[in-house]
Amino acid sequence: MAKVSVYNMEGSQVGEIELSDAVFGVKVNEHLVHMAVLQQLANNRQGTQKAKTRSEVSGGGRKPWRQKGTGHARQGSTRAPQWTGGGVVFAPTPRDYSFKLNKKEKQLALKSALTSRVAEEKIFVLDALKMDEVKTKKFQAVLDALKVNKALVVLEENDQNVILSARNIPNVKTAQTNTINVYDILKYDTLVITKDAVSKIEEVYA
Fold first, then answer.
1. How do 2-7 and 13-19 pair as beta strands?
2. 146: closest CA among 3, 4, 1, 2?
3. Where is this region: Disordered (predicted)?
């Protein structure tokens, strides 16, 4: 089991915690991590782009001039793609980009991402993260004490004081144990997580 230091909100080390190898010590599967990121980005795409083909633009019901004798190239419709105002060839249409990963694949990808953060020593475990009021300056002081700039902060519960205090800080995102994902873990340089959140994640994914 990997051992990591536990810090308080002032940035002082107050102990150590052993992380479960079943969650934080698995063999990193880079392919599944890549697929999990692709899935999240693809599932976030709206797929609402649209352009009209020649069958959808208005007009062009008759042949603009006779086939022969005018000196012009033959034309069948003013809505053909080469005409101004004509339809688009192979026009994009609304589509669904999403795809699915198996439950076990998603879990292994998440464990691989968490393991990589432990291996890179980019995880900070806090004994607790509580705030009496919504105060961005106080939350920034916690990050400064840990010497953290770009971080994903994982909480065990929906603590609105902490969430609202972190909301206006650039490069910081809060998440709960049931909303963490591979993309966010990799996007932010550091993972800041409470002891309670570690226990909850190990309970769910071990």
1. antiparallel
2. 4
3. 44-85
Tens-level pLDDT at each residue, the chain (206 residues) = 788 999 999 988 999 999 999 999 999 999 999 999 999 999 999 999 999 999 999 988 899 999 999 999 999 999 999 999 999 999 999 999 999 999 999 999 999 999 999 999 999 999 989 998 999 999 999 999 999 989 999 999 888 999 999 999 999 999 999 999 999 999 998 999 999 999 999 998 87
For residue 16, list its beta bridge partners: 5
Residues 6+ away with beta carbon under 8 Å from 194: 125, 126, 127, 128, 129, 154, 155, 156
Question: Can you give the pTM of this predicted structure?
Answer: 0.81
SS3 at position 4: strand
> Which of 173, 162, 160, 172 is CA-nearest to residue 139?
162
In the chain, the domains with their CATH numbers are: 2-45+99-205 (3.40.1370.10), 47-96 (no CATH)
Contact present, 86 and 78 (Cβ < 8 Å):
yes
